[in-house]
Specification:
This protein is mainly α. It has one domain. It is built from five helices and two strands; from the N terminus they run ααββααα. The protein has a two-stranded antiparallel ribbon. Strand 1 and strand 2 form a beta hairpin. The longest helix is centred in the middle third of the chain and has 24 residues.
Length: about 150
């Protein structure tokens, strides 16, 4: 099977919104976070975890953690690993709560109402990931026959 067929067959394994999450994880893993960690100036680096803004070296450390999260996220979506349940939903819920906390508590935030508005789509996504039965089945693994083992 050629690479294009492999990609198309893999994308058929999950709904479009989950494919979007997988591609976002891929982008963050391969393009954004390497730039953020290795090229972005330390004085400009910022990372948010649980609604708390980190800068400087703490932000660089947070970026490494984000790199791991998104790398495992891409792999977990690609292979539809069972360990993605509940962790994909839990991480997305953390983003939702973090958006709410940051906009409500940070001086640059725009208040509780906008925090709720921003948090709702991430909350809906967390619920969709939690309710998805796709991760609760076997992972996508290459099929083997007895002769291959």
């Amino acid at each position: 099977m050629n690479p294009i067929e492999t990609l198309i067959n893999n994308l058929k394994q999950r709904p479009w919104w989950m494919n979007c999450l997988m591609l976002f994880c891929g982008y963050m893993t391969v393009i954004y976070l390497p730039w953020d960690i290795f090229l972005k100036a330390l004085s400009e680096d910022q990372e948010v975890w649980f609604g708390i803004l980190f800068t400087g070296w703490a932000a660089k450390a947070g970026a490494v953690l984000h790199w791991l999260v998104y790398g495992f996220g891409f792999y977990g979506f690609w292979k539809m690993k069972s360990w993605m349940f509940p962790w994909a939903g839990v991480y997305t819920l953390q983003i939702s709560v973090g958006m709410l906390i940051w906009t409500a508590m940070d001086s640059r935030g725009s208040g509780m109402l906008s925090g709720i508005i921003v948090a709702i789509p991430f909350l809906a996504l967390a619920i969709a990931l939690w309710r998805s039965k796709l991760f609760k089945h076997n992972s996508i693994e290459p099929e083997t026959t007895e002769n291959e083992t």
